[in-house]
Amino acid sequence: MLKQRAYNFNAGPSALPLAVLEKAQKEFVDFQGTGMSVMELSHRSAAYEEVHNQAISRLKSLLSIPDQYEVLFLQGGASLQFSMIPMNFLSAGQQAGYIMTGSWSEKAIKEAELFGKPYHIASSKKNQYRTIPALSELTFNEQDAYVHLTSNNTIYGTQWKEFPETGNIPLIADMSSDILSRPIDVSRFALIYAGAQKNLGPSGVTVVIIRKDLLEKENSDAPTMLKYSTHAKTNSLFHTPPTFGIYMLGEVLRWVEEQGGIDVITQKNEEKAKIIYDTIDQSHGFYYGHAEKGSRSLMNITFRLNDEDLEKKFLTEAKEAGFVGLNGHRSVGGCRASTYNAVPFEACKALSEFMREFQQKNS
Ligand SMILES: Cc1ncc(COP(=O)(O)O)c(C=O)c1O
Questions:
Q1: What number of helices (H) and strands (E) belong to the chain?
Q2: Are strands 158-159 and 152-153 parallel, antiparallel or unpaired?
């Protein structure tokens, strides 16, 4: 019998839909009558190609990706994108604007410094990354190679609600921790990237959505494997792709479709986040959020308790009660509940009840 599922609030890798895990389990040793696991199929076989192409077309349809974009499945995580982007699109001496909203933007700009002259368009570092800069604060330079932002800040728990208009300057976004959690207008971006291990599937696959005209601006000196065009020309089959991860990603996308698509998922995510944020806001300061209200993330809810010992006690008792992954990122401490698409409302409700009870007992 299946043990009860954990209340999994991990920041990534994170919860996957139970229905997807069960389907994968059922198909594990014999995928659709092939007598093999998906992992054992040749990546050149018709059976695998079907899995691969379905995953691409499901993502295109769920995110309404226009025809002038390619969907790529790469490896190396979002972290390799921090390097691949400047390696391909930033030349020595050229500038690119980075909007700094947390540790992931810091990691991204550090790689760009190896290739050109990235600079801060704006930064919320001075307020401990509690906010997303206001659109009115941002100015863009037509000469810049691109503008880079992080749509959701997994560690600090902030999220862009509206994206800047950058005109002819390519807008590039790291959407690792909120892709597929809400509708986005892909046509506003030249490149979107995301590690799969939060909303899309298991770790090991990186999704890149790239506008085809950007491929033409690519640096021809980049190594073959690190050029986007290599993967665009070969439908991400230049080399052996992470086949099992792509199969799982396709099944997660099928699950999102079955839930009713992005609009239904968005509504559920709003309800899940609300029940936890309400608990924080109604606690009269027993719990307090890290992010300012207007910048709060629907995916990563960061909060603290006023007293450090009490915070430790909270995390210990939460763990004993079956809540997994509530420790804040090791770099900032505190508490964090990641409420990605596959985290059920029941888990968020149970957390809210646990938080209210803990407050009652300890205040
Ligand atoms: C917003 C964001 N960007 C980048 C990364 C790094 O991703 P990866 O571990 O896939 O390289 C993470 C990981 O949590 C993230 O949350």
A1: 10, 14
A2: antiparallel
- Give the containing element (helix H, strand E) for 301: strand 300-305
Q: Which amino acid is at 24?
A: A
- Take atom 15 of ligand 1 and give the residue whose Cα is closest: 176
DSSP-based three-state secondary structure for 8: strand
How sure is the predictor about 3, in pLDDT bands with cuts at 50, 70 and 90? low
Q: What's the mean per-residue pLDDT of the chain?
A: 97
Q: How confident is the model at residue 1 (pLDDT cuts 50, 70, 90)?
A: very low
State the catalytic residue, choosing from 60, 144, 160, 174.
174
Catalytic residue among 60, 198, 268, 272: 198
Could you tell me if residue 202 is left (phi over 0), alpha (psi between -120 and 50 degrees) or otherwise beta? Answer: beta
Q: What does the DSSP 8-state code read for residue 296? A: B
Q: Return d(Cα 41, Cα 49) in angstroms, integer.
A: 10
Q: How many residues are listed for the chain in this entry?
A: 363
What are the residue ranges of helices labelled H in 113-261?
212-215, 228-233, 243-259
Determine contact, residues 138/166, Cβ cutoff 8 Å. no
Is residue 104 annotated as part of the catalytic site, yes or no?
Answer: yes
pLDDT of 10:
98
Which atom of ligand 1 has the smallest separation from the CA of 153? 1
Q: Are strands 95-100 and 147-150 parallel, antiparallel or unpaired?
A: parallel
According to the model, what pLDDT value does residue 332 have? Answer: 85
Told to judge if 30 belongs to the known catalytic residues of this protein, a careful annotator would answer no
Task: Name residues whose C-beta falls within 8 Å of residue 103's C-beta, 6 or more positions apart in sequence.
Answer: 153, 155, 156, 329, 331
Q: Annotated catalytic residue: which of 104, 160, 178, 272?
A: 104
Cα–Cα distance measured from residue 11 to residue 28, given in angstroms and rounded to the nearest whole number: 26
- What is the residue with the minimal CA distance to atom 14 of ligand 1? 12
Report pTM: 0.98
Whole-angstrom Cα distance, residue 150 to residue 177?
Answer: 9
What angle (nearest 5°) sits at the alpha carbon of residue 298, between those of residues 135 and 293? Answer: 55
The pair of structure tokens assigned to 20 is 């997807």
DSSP string, 54-81: HHHHHHHHHTT--TTEEEEEESSHHHHH
Phi, psi of 288 (to 5 degrees): -135, 145
**3-state DSSP assignment of residue 201:** coil
- Ligand 1 binding site (Cβ under 6 Å of any ligand atom): 12, 77-79, 104, 150, 154, 174, 176-177, 195
